[in-house]
Amino acid sequence: MNTPKIWVLVPAAGTGSRMQSETPKQYLSLNGQPVLEHTLNVLLQTPQLAGVIVALGPEDERFGSLAVARDPRVQPIVGGRERADSVLAGLRYLAKRAASHDWVLVHDAARPCLTVSLLHSFCEKVASETEGGILAVPVADTLKWVEQSTIGRTVDRSHLWAAQTPQMFPLFTLTQALDAALTEGVPVTDEASAMEWAGHTVAVVPGAPGNIKITQPQDLALAALILRAQEES
Ligand SMILES: Nc1ccn([C@@H]2O[C@H](COP(=O)(O)OP(=O)(O)OP(=O)(O)O)[C@@H](O)[C@H]2O)c(=O)n1
Ligand SMILES: C[C@](O)(CO)[C@H](O)COP(=O)(O)O
């Protein structure tokens, strides 16, 4: 059997409401390059890469101006109302193009600080897992359950990890799990949620604190510092 290929799927159809910016955060300038350009330039170094599918908003008029948009391995599609809908749209696009044993690696456009070395070590570790895996980092702070700006209680964090992306799974297994979960109205905020709901075992690979998701306005400056530190290391 041919070596399984990895299809990269990038949800990039968000409006970035928490960023409080006119420009969708995936197009904000980060050290002189749009966030999405940084993210795609890393993802194009995925091993056994079959192609990169980018789920865009229906009115997106910015993607075509990116240099990386001219890379023949990069294919834009139209995403959906929620992140999970954008991912499912990408999976449905791939259903007609991928081989049955291929993998899909999903990575947020809003996570431009993923390093190539972490991407490679993640792919190597997860490819040996039958049902896929995710990057995650253990929670380092004491966690509080808060209601009306007061502490309800302290939450036991001994088994709590913060999920990141990439998240990588057998393509058709994830497609079936995500389609079923969304049909059942299961809340899905990452791909692992659907795989867990469908009863699959998902491996956790230690991620990096620097693999942040640009979500709030202050995250852009932090991402710039992280990228500069990566360049200097
Ligand atoms: N309908 C959507 C919503 C989000 N995303 C993508 O999913 C990733 C993570 O989502 P998030 O950080 O929530 O982005 P936004 O939805 O844009 O942010 P907000 O929730 O603040 O509006 C982002 O790369 C975003 O572009 C997507 O492809 N399709
Ligand atoms: C997928 C994710 O980045 C894992 O932490 C996160 O769930 C995305 O959440 P968002 O609210 O769609 O940004």
TrEMBL record:
GO terms for biological process, alphabetical: isopentenyl diphosphate biosynthetic process, methylerythritol 4-phosphate pathway
Pathway: Isoprenoid biosynthesis; isopentenyl diphosphate biosynthesis via DXP pathway; isopentenyl diphosphate from 1-deoxy-D-xylulose 5-phosphate: step 2/6
Pfam family name, one: IspD
Gene3D superfamilies found in the cross-reference section: Spore Coat Polysaccharide Biosynthesis Protein SpsA, Chain A
Transmembrane segments: none
Enzyme Commission numbers on file: 2.7.7.60
Site feature Positions MEP for the nucleophilic attack, where: R157, K213
Catalytic activity: 2-C-methyl-D-erythritol 4-phosphate + CTP + H(+) = 4-CDP-2-C-methyl-D-erythritol + diphosphate
Keyword Nucleotidyltransferase in annotation: yes
CDD domains per record: CDP-ME_synthetase
GO MF terms held by the record: 2-C-methyl-D-erythritol 4-phosphate cytidylyltransferase activity
Major enzyme class: transferase
UniProt-annotated site: Transition state stabilizer, residues: R18, K25
Top-level taxon in the UniProt lineage: Bacteria
Swiss-Prot/TrEMBL keywords: Isoprene biosynthesis, Nucleotidyltransferase, Transferase
NCBIfam families to which the protein is assigned, alphabetical: ispD (TIGR00453)
Job of this protein: Catalyzes the formation of 4-diphosphocytidyl-2-C-methyl-D-erythritol from CTP and 2-C-methyl-D-erythritol 4-phosphate (MEP).
UniProt record similarity statement: Belongs to the IspD/TarI cytidylyltransferase family. IspD subfamily.
Protein name (Swiss-Prot/TrEMBL): 2-C-methyl-D-erythritol 4-phosphate cytidylyltransferase
Organism: Simiduia agarivorans (strain DSM 21679 / JCM 13881 / BCRC 17597 / SA1)
